[in-house]
Amino acid sequence: MFERLRIPDVLRLTPRRFPDARGSFQETWVAGKWPTGTNDFVQDNLSVSRQSVLRGLHFQNPHSQGKLIFAVTGAIWDVAVDVRVGSPTFGQWVAEELSAENGVQLFIPRGFAHGFVVLSESAHVIYKCDDVYTPGAEVTLRWNDPELGIAWPVQDPILSPRDAGAPSLAELRSAGALPSFGDLR
Questions:
Q1: Can you give the residue range of the structural domain that contains 38?
Q2: List 114, 124, 127, 133, catalytic entry
Q3: Domain presence at residue 79
Q4: The whole model's pTM is what?
């Protein structure tokens, strides 16, 4: 099942699960079966984090990446922020709880900053990307930028030094570090 969120370019996916006495089975991605824009993955990433770790908000410009995110163990609160200059939803965010239990996935298209915080004791998170990681293109956006007003479900997250010192959306826009909506469509 696929559902468009408040920002319609971001999709919530709930693959079918087949439970039995042994456990369950679920397809996490099938070429041609998932919605348009989620079929050209070239890199898979695994992130392992402990409770209250907040990773993000990250994006690449250039070499923007679309991502399909899901938790293999534990639970996270996953956030997507539209950073495409000229987009009708620029600066808006959406979030979903993704867990091993609920099996929900989030497809975040190119031009969005992405981050998550771990809600459970630990979490293993996989994200499939439609472009390879390019270290020189990575940009970090301040997780608690007041302009964004993201309602993170933690008070004092564990952050990397890079995430703790990230610039605001206004600072990134002023520096020309944001992608253009027209270039990503």
A1: 2-172
A2: 127
A3: yes
A4: 0.93
